[in-house]
Every structure is written in structure tokens, then in C-alpha cells.
Amino acid sequence: MTYRLCVFDIDGVLNPAGCPVQKEGIAGIEKLEEHGLEITFASGKHPWYITGGLVFSGLLRPDTIVVGESGGHVFFPREKERVLYIRFIDDIKKVKHHFFETLAPDYEVWEEPKETLFSLFPKKWEDIPHVSRDLETIIMREQLNLYVIAHVDAVDVMQNGLSKKTGLTVVAEHLGIRFEEMIGVGDGMNDLEMLSSVGYPVAVANADDRVKEIVRERGGYISEEKFGEGVLEAAKHITRKIL
């Protein structure tokens, strides 16, 4: 199999959550580029936030495509064009309304501005399971076409049918490539669909156990190192044994 594209999650992969991209992660990406792979980034963050981080990390290229909001917002920085997933966007508005009307006083949370999903960052990480449960209760009660993903530091409410695979489908059509020609690197639950679809999945050592299970089942690579060091390790493995 000839691989043409490598897709990276960012937080939890290139860097610990909330920290800058690590130099080892940058070195790993540059090594893959030297071997002819195009690089795309797929994150839960808003694409403008991602693009800014890529600029300051020295990773934004003229042809970079950014998959933001866990697949819901694909941004083409050079063309300043974007593709949004809005099939159940009205349900996103409804769950936000119900949460802030009835539950917000119970928690200290910050809403990260996004256009295709509802993303909350509780001040106390121990509140994450409770926020997730309360959001799921609203979704069931109101019969909304949404689902919840809990992260180490946040809770996302997603539209049904939306995942990073959704955004990568846009990328694949734009570049004229197949999922089988992609390598994907991830760590969290919002990476599952991506890692289940690409030709070669990779997980860093700090990845969720379910993510590692998928990668293992599909014959992919699990690094021994965490975060950026794991990316560099995986890049060495890919360039020596996969490409």
C-alpha cells in the first residue's frame, strides 16, 4: 500500500492537553514530510485556533488542510474556504439552551466557541462525568440527534453522524485520495472513527485503552513513548517499515 497522507490529532498527541506542540512532535512530522507524505491535522478545536497554533509551531504549509471541531468544520487556510456539518445544528442550539437554563448554575464551566458542536470545559475535572451524564439526560429527554464524548479536560456534544471521519471524507474528496492511503495518529475517543477508517492507525502511549484496542486489532502501531516523543518514535517506525 502506498500512503499519501498522515492525519494528526493535536492535544494528547503532539502535546499534552493545554501545552504547546512539543519539539519531538514537530521533528516527527518533518521526518514524514521528507518521505513525501502530506500532513493534515484533525482536532476538536476550532480551525482558527488550530491554524494559529500551526503558525506558531512552524507547521502551517501552503497546502495545509485543517479538520476542526472533531470533523464538523473543515478549513482551507490558503483559500479561506470552509465546509461545515450542520445536519442537526438546531439540536446543538437546543441542548445549549437547556443546559444554560437549567444546569449551568450547578457547575463552573467555560464554553469554548465552536460552530458545529457544543464544547464545555469544567473548572473541576472531577465534574466531567457529572456534566456528561446531565447532558445525556437532556438529549434523551428532548429526543435530540446528538451524542456526548468526554475528554480528560472537556465534554463535547456532537451531532449524530459527525466524527473526524466526516471531515476527512471532505479532505479525501478534495485531494482525490482514499482512506486506505491515509495514516492516522490519535489518542482519544473522538479519534476512534478516524483510526477505524484509515489504512494504517497509530496510537501514542498515553492513548485511551479503547483507542489502543482498535489500533491493535487493525495491526497498527502503538508507541512506547507519550505525546511528541511518541510521535517521533512512530514516525521513525513508519519511515523504516511502512512506507
Report on this model:
The protein has 243 residues and is of the alpha/beta class. It has helices at residues 23-34, 47-57, 89-102, 128-142, 164-175, 192-197, 209-217, 227-242; strands at 5-8, 38-42, 66-68, 73-76, 81-84, 109-112, 118-122, 146-150, 155-159, 182-186, 200-203, 221-222. Helix 1 (23-34) packs parallel to helix 8. The model has no long low-confidence stretch (mean pLDDT 97).
Gyration radius over CA: 18 Å
Shape: globular
Look at the helices and sheets and give the structural class.
alpha/beta
Estimate the strand proportion: 15-25%
Main sheet overview: 8 strands, mixed
CATH topology of the largest domain: Rossmann fold
Please name the fourth-level CATH homologous superfamily of the largest domain.
HAD superfamily/HAD-like
User: How many domains is the backbone divided into?
Assistant: 2
Number of strands: 12
- Topology pattern, helix = H, strand = E: EHEHEEEHEEHEEHEHEHEH
User: Helical region count?
Assistant: 8
Q: For the largest beta sheet, what order do the strands appear in spatially?
A: 5-4-3-2-1-10-11-12
Any idea what the CATH architecture of the largest domain is? 3-Layer(aba) Sandwich
Q: Show unreliable segments.
A: none
In the CATH hierarchy, what is the class of the largest domain?
Alpha Beta
Distance between the termini: 8 Å
Question: Roughly how much helix do the residues carry, as a percent range?
Answer: 25-40%
Q: How confident overall, as mean pLDDT?
A: 97
